[in-house]
Amino acid sequence: MEEKINLKELNVREGDPGDFITHNIDNCTGCGKCVLICPANLWKLEKGKSNLAKDYKERCMECVACESICDYNAITFMYPKGGTGIKYMHG
Amino acid sequence: MKGVVFTSYDLIVVGAGPGGAIAGKTAADLGLKTIMLERGSYPGAKNASGCALSPKLWRDFDFIKRLDVPSMRTVRIHTSHLVDNDLCEEFAFSQTPSKRLNTYKEAKEFFTVNLYRSEFDPWLAQLAVNAGAELRNSTTVVDLTRNDQGKIDGIVTDRGEKIRGRIIIGADGGWSVVARKAGIRAKWQKDEVTLVVSYDFKCESKQLVDDVIGDNGIHTWLGGGFPGAYQFFKADGFHLGLGDWLSSYEKNPRGHLNTALKVDGIKKLIKLTKAKIREFHAHLLPWLKYPGQTYTDNVLLIGDAAGFPCPLEAEGIWYAMYSGRIASQIAKKALDAGDTSKTFLKQYENAWKDSEIGVEFEAGPELQEFWANLPFAPKNMEWFSKLLNDQFAIFTTGEAHITYFRRFTEILGDQAEIIVPFLTRYMLPIFGKVFKQPLGNLKMIQQMMKQFTKPKKKKE
To answer: Which residues does chain B have within 8 Å of residue A38's beta carbon, measured at their own beta carbons?
Structure first.
């Protein structure tokens, strides 16, 4: 069953959320906690730093776990514009 | 800013989930000019949880008797499944509500009513609107405004609009913008907040779920190397979810969830109800030993924003609704008195501490630690599950029963080094709170346990 799960197809999204996650790369130590925690796999370690997926706006769950787990203030988050982003139909 | 006309309210409620809706309804009922601001395109659009309503709602909120939405399933039986590391069921037990210990009709009759937040939240928010509160959807609050004295006096929306409010209620969930911008809290500690992930499954039909599941609508799956998973059946679907504290995850949360999908019993229920994954959810959920600061000048926090989910199992909806009602009642008193300072608003903290929320947190640290170290600790679940199974399997053993039981006591002795510290560290403190005695008075029990296990301690 696992192989068939495509998150992009599962979740409904609406509107253009604009940018809502900022990666302050100078603060990033490459500890990898954001990579471990992100349920949408938006973060990857590259050259000793974590790197946010370019299409994060289309995949982010807005759970804010990345910002919450970061010890170095390397991730800034603010909820996307009202009425945009993920929309749970069966939450 | 001269010349700018602000819209002005007695009360601004940020977030229109269950807590915000009840805060809004209560305030409107008390005659306050109230607005609720919701960042989703409808209340509930951003919320996900197992979503099981406690009978406490029926006890405390009269209007809930009128609740009738399609996804409701009433749960009378809860089954816990203990899973071994091969993802096979090792031990299971079911409960029904105690008719002796519960004190009111609904609590005697059912554990929960499961339903979708996308149906429940709009229903609740409509009650607030009917009472006269204004609801504005698709509005994210990004900041708070302050007056000349530096006191909070309003909010700023994502469109740059400023709205004045004499009191602001932060009902905006675990990651509360209001709590942050008011300076009440920067971040939760990583052992204060969990990340919960879940799949929503669509079953073939309501009839099939009725036939296969009926009122046995909660299944929990513990062990198996993943943090405790829950399966909450709604009318024609279910959530399969799990969560753990941010400080505890050693593996990606969705990876854990996908492991849970491989559990024999879960696969069986998926097959029997002809279920397919329909949606994926991820949500931050505070799970504290004790709530921190819940108010400041002109600001009150309720529900998840205040850290109220219950310390044993992180139930959040009743806590949000109940604290929402208290907060608006105190807000009304403050506005009538013309004093919305934190000195006055401390009454809110006093009120929730005096309520059942406060009672629940009497043993907050003990309950939270117990949960974190048993259901959510795969290593402890491993020996616990085997012990439970060995004990109850005496009835169906293929050995002489007395011989089997002797072997069981030998195992107890052999594992005393694990079991006794666990009991003294995580179980006795709870009993200490129950009996309102300091832990020192329970030393006798500890001694008894040592005596019981002494003969088997022969490791040199």
So the answer is: 252
Residue B141 pairs in a beta bridge with B157
Q: Is B273 on the interface with A (CB under 8 A)?
A: no
Tens digit of each residue's pLDDT (9 = 90 or more) over B108-163: 999 999 999 999 999 999 999 999 999 999 999 999 999 999 999 999 999 999 99
d(CA B342, CA A3): 53
Distance CA B293, CA B314 (A): 19
Please list the alpha-helical segments (H only) found in B338-377.
342-354, 356-360, 364-373
The answer for B 40-59 residues in CB contact with A (under 8 A) is: 40-41, 44-49, 51
- In 3-state terms, what secondary structure has residue B310? coil
Residue B250 CA from chain centroid, whole number: 22
Size of interface A-B (CB pairs under 8 A): 132
Cβ contacts (< 8 Å) between B258 and chain A: which residues? Answer: 2, 5
Instruction: Please name the residue that has the structure tokens 């009642």.
Output: B329
Shortest Cα–Cα distance, B428 to chain A (Å): 32
Q: Which residues of B touch A66 (CB under 8 A)?
A: none
Q: Is B233 on the interface with A (CB under 8 A)?
A: no
Q: What angle do CA B94, B367, B241 make, to 5 degrees?
A: 55
Residue bearing tokens 């630690």: B369
Q: Which helix (H) or strand (E) holds B79?
A: strand B78-83
pLDDT at position B460 is 46
- pTM summary value: 0.94
The pLDDT score that the predictor gives to residue A37 is 98
Distance from C-alpha of B182 to C-alpha of B428, rounded to nearest angstrom: 39
